[in-house]
Amino acid sequence: MTIPTSSPRTIPILLYHSVSAAPADWIAPLAVTPTTFAHHLDVIVSRGHTGLTVSHLRDALRGRTPWPERPVVVTFDDGFADFADAAEQLIARRLPSTLYVTTGALRGRGSPAPELRLPPAHMLSWSQLAELTQRGVEIGAHTHTHPQLDVLPAGLAAQEIRRGKDLLEDELGREVPSFAYPYGFHRDSVRRSVRMAGYTSACAVKNALSSPPDDQFALARLTIRADTDTARLQAWLAGRQARIAPYPEKMTTRAWRLYRRTGGWRGKRLPNATNATRS
């Protein structure tokens, strides 16, 4: 890939989950209050950053569009109902975002998918998605049941990757070009399945800054936790206090994948997205 000469050294891609003063217990470590979220967005705006969706970032990485001043990408995973209020805060500041939804968890089509891996929580409804897209939110896929894709048989992983995209495209009447790996877990065969499904970008986690040479099918993101203060956010926005992707996968990541594949994790709560990917 040819990197445009005007490209930035680092690109912070922020990963949020829930914006709530009373989140479900299991997601609370990864939830921020509406007040904290507002402070985060005000920091982004005051520093002169330009918000991009993941697909807009991909276009800039490909040289199809010019790089904006101080790019930043705001993403959300899972599809919690409180995103509707978070979107209002983003829209008020003219900041675009990308929302990756787990289709089997959405409300409005009966009970959640019986094989859903997410614990109970109040989620968005199918009927809210179209309005969000009309207001500048990019909708991306996050599988149907939120499984650990890197330890699934290849056929089942491909079905999960494709099903969320098909359901969302049927609902929205438009292409859904971006994907996010549940827990950040991925490997070569999973990334190939994402490409073959027709996606043009995908987000991992990595808890690192992205950069122009980063893998467009495993973009690094920085997980926002309940205790992520504005000082830490400012450091990330300045390209500090985090590794810069891409970098080689760690041996500990491979060992953790083998442990999960052989069933060592069964009966135990999986780590949250902050620690799930160690590549």
UniProtKB/TrEMBL annotation:
UniProt keywords, alphabetically: Signal
Task: Report the locations given in the UniProt record.
Answer: Secreted
- Which part of the chain is the NodB homology domain? 70-279
Q: Please identify the protein, giving its name as recorded.
A: NodB homology domain-containing protein
What the entry lists under Gene3D superfamilies is as follows:
Glycoside hydrolase/deacetylase
Pfam families registered for this protein in UniProt: Polysacc_deac_1
Task: Indicate the transmembrane segments per the record.
Answer: none
Q: Which organism is it from?
A: Pseudonocardia adelaidensis
